[in-house]
């Protein structure tokens, strides 16, 4: 596939192409790097944006961290990067080698010298704290994982001092997603309990920063939904105390303005078990009893949340475990819920 200026012009609208030309002329395209058939660069605009171009048999594909960067090569930053690359000669690197299959890699490693393998692992562990923690845990070290680095990573990605406008929101939530990926990785690495706590910390940070980010495209809701998915997966893989978990789920649900943990049932039922579910029900019903009598036009957030939790109790678990002595059943809960 031969890429040319005329091809880039056809892929972008006239305005984006002209702006891309101006960005290139102003020297705003930096660090153009070619890796096989992929070109990456950073472009200075309202903020610094990351651009990736892929040359495929079907044509030129582009992605950018700006709000319009998911539309192929149509944004001005992709245009500027394309032109900068073409200005440098438009050369592509060596084709990337096909990845070695797990079977072949395992066969190779089984024949390697033990000392060489140890050196490779030690070298990798120096730059990968999760790997080092896994090795330390396997060696018998208690509390091998230290979550401070990932806490710092979450803070740097989420806890922002200044307002992020619409133009910067895409890049902001991209960084947030990368940090959440590090938390999610802990589940498969054997540190699910640490992932539970870090997921809850990430939710705290997202709540505290929510008013400082333009959320017109729903990035905040997507980030919160992902953290809740990570939290559930970590709870399923880990061994949280069921009663303490129930207390945290209810406390967060009734204290947040962002509808966190509103629909934990039935997903968390197995994790909570009978003890956790009983505590969860106890706290929700306690909150229900303390609500003042409903007045006309009373639409308080607390009333909405507690009513929603009561209805979820009725629909999700009332009919299945109330018969085992865990409290009032479905019909009774549904009868009581609308009256407060």
TrEMBL record:
Biased composition (Basic and acidic residues): 329-340
Keyword Cytoplasm: no
The protein's name: SWIM-type domain-containing protein
Domain SWIM-type: 49-86
Keywords for the protein's UniProt record, in alphabetical order: Metal-binding, Zinc, Zinc-finger
Pfam families: DUF6880 (PF21810)
Species of origin: Lentzea guizhouensis
Region (Disordered): 317-340
InterPro entries, alphabetized: DUF6880, Znf_SWIM
């Amino acid at each position: 596939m031969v890429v040319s200026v005329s091809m880039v012009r056809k892929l972008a609208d006239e305005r984006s192409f002209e702006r891309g030309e101006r960005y290139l002329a102003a020297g705003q395209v930096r660090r153009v790097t070619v890796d096989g058939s992929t070109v990456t660069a950073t472009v200075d605009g309202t903020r610094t944006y990351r651009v990736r171009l892929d040359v495929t048999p079907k044509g030129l594909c582009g992605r950018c961290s700006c709000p319009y960067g998911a539309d192929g090569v149509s944004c001005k930053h992709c245009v500027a990067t394309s032109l900068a690359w073409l200005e440098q000669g438009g050369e592509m690197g060596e084709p990337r080698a096909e990845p070695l299959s797990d079977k072949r890699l395992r066969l190779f490693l089984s024949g390697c010298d033990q000392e060489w393998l140890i050196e490779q692992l030690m070298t990798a562990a120096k730059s990968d704290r999760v790997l080092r923690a896994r090795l330390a845990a396997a060696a018998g070290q208690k509390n091998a994982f230290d979550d401070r680095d990932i806490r710092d990573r979450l803070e740097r990605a989420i806890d922002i001092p200044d307002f992020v406008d619409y133009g910067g929101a895409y890049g902001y939530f991209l960084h947030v997603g990368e940090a959440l990926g590090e938390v999610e990785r802990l589940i498969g690495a054997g540190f699910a309990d640490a992932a539970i706590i870090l997921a809850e910390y990430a939710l705290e940070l997202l709540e505290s920063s929510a008013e400082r980010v333009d959320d017109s495209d729903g990035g905040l809701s997507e980030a919160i939904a992902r953290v809740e998915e990570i939290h559930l997966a970590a709870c399923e893989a880990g061994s949280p105390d069921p009663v303490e978990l129930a207390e945290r789920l209810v406390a967060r649900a009734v204290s947040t303005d962002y509808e966190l943990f509103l629909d934990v049932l039935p997903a968390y039922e197995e994790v909570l078990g009978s003890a956790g579910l009983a505590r969860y029900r106890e706290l929700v019903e306690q909150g229900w009893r303390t609500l003042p009598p409903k007045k006309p036009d009373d639409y308080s957030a607390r009333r909405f949340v507690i009513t929603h939790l009561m209805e979820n109790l009725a629909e999700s678990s009332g009919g299945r475990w109330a018969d085992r002595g865990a409290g009032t059943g479905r019909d009774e809960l549904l009868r009581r819920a609308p009256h407060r």
